[in-house]
Design brief:
The chain is 43% helix and 13% strand. With 283 residues, the chain is α/β, with parallel strands linked by helices.
């Protein structure tokens, strides 16, 4: 297999959980020859007791799996909604590798009104709205801001890939915060692409449909328990009923799209968002 990213340096945020899209992206980048820095929060947030974030041992395990491809790996703890921590993370990666070529803004999520929880706007706490926008939109702004500075200074060009969501492409009753964040992320991708084009830095996004990550599996189990008398498999079957391909995606299927956008295989694409949803939005 050709090493199409040999010697490139990539950052993947939200990469600290097994069976997650971030982990899958990091491993696919490594398979293609890139050195990879993986980033996750690696601690719990007291105000979000139901949210489970990637922990330090999990993040280190991802880094070790990356090294099996014969490339270098770096695990970094950072809250990507905190600008000081983001700036420190980018500096650490630059110090370790000397450059940044690829940034995959995969960290995201939310609570209250998406991606899985449902709360109507009239009942949505401001705190849930703020957290969801921070996690799914502001994080991408902060990481892009600081990584792009390094890319511009390096003069090598580069690629930024943002993980959006199928939720960005239509109304989502009960999911206002997450849908709004991802809708804004699509426009942010377009705007940043125009700003960075003179520096030969491409910016694209992809919008996953339902993907069988560990996070989604936990949500299936929680919904099944809340509804009573159902199994997680039954809830999953209900969720995928409207998907023309008739199934949820695997994280590896999302990773293949992300790495396509990161690589020179998409060298004349910028400002675009690819929808990867099994045909859901084609209806």
């Amino acid at each position: 297999m050709a090493m199409r990213l040999e010697g490139r340096v990539a950052i993947v945020t939200g990469a600290g959980r097994a069976q997650g899209i971030g982990e899958a992206i990091a491993l696919r980048l490594a398979e293609k020859g890139a050195h990879v820095a993986v980033v996750d929060l690696c601690r719990q947030r007291e105000e979000l007791p139901r949210e489970i974030f990637g922990q330090w041992d999990e993040l280190q395990a991802v880094a070790e799996n990356i090294r099996q491809y014969g490339v270098r790996a770096l695990a970094v703890r950072a809250d990507v909604t905190n600008e000081v921590e983001v700036a420190t993370m980018v500096a650490r990666v630059t110090e370790e590798f000397g450059r940044i070529d690829i940034l995959c803004n995969n960290a995201g999520g939310g609570t209250g009104a998406g991606p899985v929880d449902r709360t109507d706007v009239v009942d949505l706490p401001r705190s849930a709205w703020n957290y969801t926008l921070d996690a799914s939109l502001t994080s991408t702004f902060l990481c892009s801001k600081h990584a792009a500075r390094i890319m511009i200074a390096g003069g090598f060009g580069g690629s930024i890939v943002n993980t959006a969501s199928v939720s960005a492409h239509g109304g989502m009753p009960g999911g206002s915060a997450y849908a709004a964040a991802k809708f804004a992320l699509v426009n942010f991708t377009q705007t940043l692409a125009l700003e960075l084009a003179p520096h030969r830095i491409r910016v694209n996004a992809f919008s996953p449909g339902m993907t069988m990550t560990q996070y989604v599996q936990q949500r299936l189990e929680a919904v099944a328990q809340a509804q009573g008398g159902k199994t997680a498999s039954q809830v999953q079957a209900e969720w995928v009923r409207g998907v023309p391909l008739g199934r949820a995606a695997l994280p590896e299927e999302m990773a293949s799209v992300a790495v396509f956008l990161a690589s020179e295989d998409s060298s004349y694409m910028t400002g675009q968002t690819l929808i990867v949803d099994g045909g859901l939005t084609a209806r």
